[in-house]
Specification:
- This protein is of the alpha/beta class.
- Helix 3 links the parallel strand 3 and strand 4.
- Strands 2-1-3-4-5 form a 5-stranded parallel beta sheet, with helices on both faces.
- The chain is globular and about 50 Å long.
- The chain is 47% helix and 13% strand.
- The chain is built from 10 helices and 5 strands.
Length: 223
């Protein structure tokens, strides 16, 4: 039996959160573990395993559905990075297909972008793709990428960059993970994110050789 995909939703629209609970509650493959009005609230909710002395360990959901603009004034890019650092993948949701904001979200590390007028099957398919490391390739995202006039190099987190450079230099995945002090599974997850970002930038990199070429093209070795 396939493992459930855990999902959280961050949105300051209470009606939308109620709707998401009803929608996702009926999808057997997904498990909605938390909803919150802000990223601060989600990360402070501390669901999960009880630890000694009354503390609890935050268990990051597989995918966070994140509203692009929240009323707390938080920057979308900062919200995305914080969620990525916590261990989740991020699917942006918004009321409008603003191509500049879409590109900024992808460069910050979001794995996809959907407008809120999509139906449930589209949302579920996007969540599954994001959880699998494939990214959510919506029409909105495709249009934004096709009309992007910004720099072509995707924005990588420091850990993504480290794993990319070590792996592309010729190290095995196991050696790359050991050098970064992470598990092989986590190292592969970082590489999947790197590949997804290059794919969304219109510069796919499927193999180690492709990744090495991207490193040279973007002058990552010395930067």
């Amino acid at each position: 039996m396939a493992r459930l995909i855990t999902v959280a939703v961050v949105d300051d629209d209470r009606m939308l959160l109620d709707g998401m609970r009803a929608w996702l509650g009926g999808v057997p493959e997904l498990d909605l573990t938390a909803t919150a009005a802000t990223v601060d609230e989600l990360l402070a909710s501390r669901p999960g395993t009880e630890l000694p002395y009354g503390e609890a360990r935050y268990e990051a959901p597989d995918v966070v559905l994140l509203d692009l603009v929240l009323r707390d004034g938080s920057a979308p890019a900062d919200n995305i990075r914080r969620l990525l650092d916590s261990g989740s993948r991020v699917l942006m949701i918004s009321t409008v297909p603003d191509r500049h904001r879409i590109i900024d979200a992808v460069r910050a590390g979001a794995d996809g972008y959907l407008t809120k007028d999509n139906d449930l099957p589209t949302l579920v398919a996007a969540v599954k793709d994001v959880a699998a490391g494939l990214g959510a390739h919506s029409p909105e995202l495709a249009f934004a990428c096709a009309h992007d006039d910004g720099p072509a190099a995707p924005r990588l987190s420091p850990r993504e960059r480290q794993v990319l450079l070590d792996y592309a230099s010729g190290l095995t995945l196991k050696s790359t993970a050991r050098r970064a002090g992470i598990t092989v599974h986590t190292a592969k997850d970082y590489l999947d994110r790197v590949k997804a970002k290059y794919r969304q930038a219109g510069r796919p990199a499927y193999t180690k050789i492709d990744l090495a070429v991207r490193v040279r093209e973007d002058s990552l070795e010395g930067g």
